[in-house]
Amino acid sequence: MRDLIIAHRKSEIDLVDLQTAEPILRREIALKGRVLYEAEPGLFERYSLFYIKDFYELRPLIQAEMARIMEKVRVVIGND
Question: Global pTM?
Answer without folding.
Answer: 0.61
